[in-house]
Amino acid sequence: xxxxxxxxxxxxxxxxxxxxxxxxxxxxxxxxxxxxxxxxxxxxxxxxxxxxxxxxxxxxxxxxxxxxxxxxxxxxxxxxxxxxxxxxxxxxxxxxxxxxxxxxxxxxxxxxxxxxxxxxxxxxxxxxxxxxxxxxxxxxxxxxxxxxxxxxxxxxxxxxxxxxxxxxxxxxxxxxxxxxxxxxxxxxxxxxxxxxxxxxxxxxxxxxxxxxxxxxxxxxxxxxxxxxxxxxxxxxxxxxxxxxxxxxxxxxxxxxxxxxxxxxxxxxxxxxxxxxxxxxxxxxxxxxxxxxxxxxxxxxxxxxxxxxxxxxxxxxxxxxxxxxxxxxxxxxxxxxxxxxxxxxxxxxxxxxxxxxxxxxxxxxxxxxxxxxxxxxxxxxxxxxxxxxxxxxxxxxxxxxxxxxxxxxxxxxxxxxxxxxxxxxxxxxxxxxxxxxxxxxxxxxxxxxxxxxxxxxxxxxxxxxxxxxxxxxxxxxxxxxxxxxxxxxxxxxxxxxxxxxxxxxxxxxxxxxxxxxxxxxxxxxxxxxxxxxxxxxxxxxxxxxxxxxxxxxxxxxxxxxxxxxxxxxxxxxxxxxxxxxxxxxxxxxxxxxxxxxxxxxxxxxxxxxxxxxxxxxxxxxxxxxxxxxxxxxxxxxxxxxxxxxxxxxxxxxxxxxxxxxxxxxxxxxxxxxxxxxxxxxxxxxxxxxxxxxxxxxxxxxxxx
Length: 703
Fold this sequence. Notes:
- With 703 residues, the chain is mainly α.
- Among the domains are: 20-80, CD2-Gal4, CATH 4.10.240; 145-181 and 559-703, no CATH class; 193-404, no CATH class.
- It contains 29 helices and four strands.
- The strands form two sheets. The protein has a two-stranded antiparallel ribbon. A two-stranded parallel ribbon has the order 3-4.
- Strand 1 and strand 2 form a beta hairpin.
- The longest helix has 28 residues, at 488-515.
C-alpha cells in the first residue's frame, strides 16, 4: 500500500510521529530541501566542499562548523599526549590568591589588551587597606575591609609610628581572642541534640531573661510577636510540669534558647547569681543549647530557624565577635531567601495574617542587620540587588501606608523602626559603594560625602518626633524635657538611632581623615571642614554613650557599644597623632579618650572590652607623650615618659611573640602608637574571637 493510501485510510492505526527532517538536517540541506544523512559533515556538503553547519533547535544560538570541531578534537589529542609536569609555581600562587580564578585569564590577555592603570592603582590602594589573617585560636581566616574599625586602628598605629620604631608583628585578631567564651556543645552540659525539650525546668530562672529581651533588644529589632512567643513558652513549661506531650516544634525550642541567651547577656546584673551562675555563664549555656537544637534539626528552612539565627548573631555582637556575627547573619539571610520571605506573597496566599506580618518584620530587620554587620567589618553583604526584594514594610499607625492597609495587618508603633533602619542601612551601603570601594580622589570624596550627608540628614528629619534624636545644632539650643514621659520603647529607639547616626557620620568622613594630607586640608575646599565633622561626630558618640552609661543600668550590659566607643576614640587619636589638633583643643580631645577608656573598663565582665581599654590607654599615653613634657603632664596628670611596659609587666597580651606572622596592613593602616615591646594595633572591631570548641565553630563545619 502506498504512503498516500495509508494516510487516507481512517481505520489504520496511526503510526508513530516522525521526527521533523529539518531538525536534524544541516543548514545547507535544509535550504536546498535535500535529504540530509545527518553525518558530520554530511555527504552532500562533503562532496561539494561546503561548510556543514547544524543549527539545532530553533532556540539554540550556537553554530559549530566542522573546522571548529576538528580544531577541538586536535587540541584534545595534543593535550592527551602532552607529558604531565609540575605547574609553574608562580602561576599556582597567583591562582590561589585570586578570589575566583579569573585573574589567570586576565593575565593571559594583558599582552593583547595592555594594563588598566587607573583600575590597578585603585585596587592596589584598597588592598593595602584590608586585612586577612588567620585567627590562631580557631584556625579560621578572617577578612576585614576598608570600612572596618580594624582598619582604623591599624592606621592609628601607622600614623604614630616613628622611623626608628619596631613592630612585633602581633596580631590582635588572635590576641583579643575571647578565651572565656569556650563552651563545648553537648559535652559541657551533658545534653544531646534532642534534649532541648527536656530543659524546661529552667522556667523559674529564665523568665526574667525573656522579660529583659522584650524590654530592650526587642524594641530595636522587633522580629518576634511577644504574645505569641510567650504563649508558646507557657505551653513548653506546662508540658514539662504536667508530663503532657510537647506542643511546640523543635525549631521554636532553638529560638527559645537563643532568646534566653541574648536576654541573659543584656540583663542588668543582680546582687546574687541565679543558681550560682552569672548572667554571662547563663547566656553561654543557653547559646550552647540553642546551637545544639539547630544542629539536631539539620538544614531546615522555617521562620523560627531564621529568627533563631538572627538572635544568635546578636549574641555574637554582644560577645564582641563581629566575625561570627557576620556568619550567623549570613545563615539567617540564606534561610530567609530560601523561604522567599523577601518576596511579597500573591493575592491567593494561604498564609495567616500573623505569619505574613512575622515574615515582613523578620526580613526587613534582617536586611538592616546584615548590612550593618557587613559594613562594620568591611565585607560584602549577602542580600543581593534590591530588585529581588519587593516585600512590603511592616505597617504601623506611625506610617503613612497605614491609611490604605487592612486593619488586621497593622503592627504596634515600635515596629516602625524596622523601615527606618532599612533606610539607614541603604545609606550605609551607599557610603560603601561610592566612597570606600572606588577609592576616589580627595576632591571627589568631598563632593560624594557632602551629597550623602544631605541624604543622611534627610533621613534624620524624616523620623517621627518620638524617636528622632535631638541633634546638637549650631544655635546650641537647650534640650527639652518633653520627652521624659515618652514610652520606654521610644526612648530606647531614640538612643540607638542617635548613636548610629553619629557612627555613620564618622564613617562618612573618616576616609577623608585617613587619606588627606595637611596641604590638602588647607588647600582643597571643604576638606578641613569635613575632617572636623568626623572628629565632632566621634566626640558626640563618646559623650552620648558615657552619659547613658552613667544614668541607665540597662545600657551598661550592652557590650556591643564597645565597638562604637573604640571606633570613635580611634578617630580622635588619629586626629591627634596627625598633628591636626591645635594646642587649645588637645586637653578636651584626650579627655574624650579617657572617657572612652572608662566606658570600656566599666564593661569588666567582657575580657575583650578590658583589653581594648588597655590598648587605647597605651595609645593615648603615647600620643600625648609626643608633646612637650609639661604639656603632657597637664593633659593627663601623669608622667608620660614612664614606661607602660613596667606598668603591665606580666600582661601576656603585650608580650612579644615571634611565632606569629608579620604585621598586616589594612585600609586605614597600622597604628604605631605602641613601642617595640608593645603589640601591633592591627585590629579593632574583631574584639575577640570564639574558641575552637565553641558551638558556633562546629555549626559552620570547623574541625
